[in-house]
Amino acid sequence: MRWSLTQLKKFSNESIAVNEKVQFKEITDRKDVLGLSETSVEGEMHVGASRIGADLTIDTVVHMLDSRTSENIEVPLHIESYEEFDEEAEETDELDENVHPVTHTLDLEPVVRELIVVNLPNVVTESDEVPAGGRNWSVMTEDELADEEEQKVDPRLSKLKSLLESDNENKED
Predict the structure, then answer these.
(1) Beta strands in 87-149 (DSSP E)
(2) What pLDDT does residue 170 have?
(3) What is the 3 state secondary structure string of 104-159?
(4) In Å, how far are 3, 11, 53, 147, 149 from 49, measured between CA atoms?
(5) Is residue 161 a contact partner of residue 167, using CB atoms and an 8 Å limit?
(6) Cα distance between residue 46 and residue 57, in whole Å
(7) Collapsing DSSP states into helix, strand and coil, what is residue 160?
(8) DSSP SS3 for 34
(9) Nearest to 57 by CA among 136, 143, 115, 129
């Protein structure tokens, strides 16, 4: 997925088909991402005078840990993106997020890698069950939470509560 600009200039004002298979060893340092299956990159590159546009479709399967059960699951990713590569742009220029400066060679691999990382889900689960609880926590309804908060009394104010209750009893008599 790497071309020199002189190669690409031969196809000025034409389109070049991209159909590549890539195997990434590591994609990110996230602990819940275990790896990727072979990644398919398809699309077209449109070569202009100083800009090259790449219309890309990326398909892969990400092996991740289930957020609830920590089991190994497969998450399919389908990404469509349009990226531009500009010969005249510098690394220090403020560019749109899909415009990349390029000198001498155009390499799609870092762009594909970045698109995959950006599109990784933060939380993924195949489990439909709501967890019942764990160590020092449990799942409860809003009503249960409201009842529990009503019953809680700050220990420093417990004497005041007993005074309030005894005061209410005296008023009833």
Answers:
(1) 99-101, 105-107, 133-134, 137-138
(2) 75
(3) CEEECHHHHHHHHHHCCCCCCCCCCCCCCEECCEECCCHHHHHHHHHHCCCHHHHH
(4) 16, 10, 11, 70, 68
(5) no
(6) 15
(7) helix
(8) strand
(9) 115
Which segments of the chain have a pLDDT < 70?
90-96, 98, 130-131, 153, 172-173
Q: Quote the pLDDT of residue 173.
A: 61
Strand partners, 43: 18, 56
- Report the distance separating Cα 33 and Cα 24, nearest Å: 12
In Å, the largest CA–CA distance within the chain is 102
Helix (H) or strand (E) holding 56: strand 51-65
Candidates 65, 56, 72, 60; CA nearest to 1 is 56
Residues 126-138 pLDDT 10s:
777 766 777 788 8
Q: How many CB atoms lie within 10 A of CB 4?
A: 10
pLDDT of the residue at 44: 92
3-state SS class at 26: coil
Residue with tokens 């009394």: 153
Question: Rg of the Cα trace of the chain?
Answer: 29
pLDDT at 5: 78
Instruction: Say what the pLDDT of residue 131 is.
Output: 67
pLDDT of amino acid 95: 64
Q: CA 83, CA 95: separation in Å to the nearest integer? A: 12
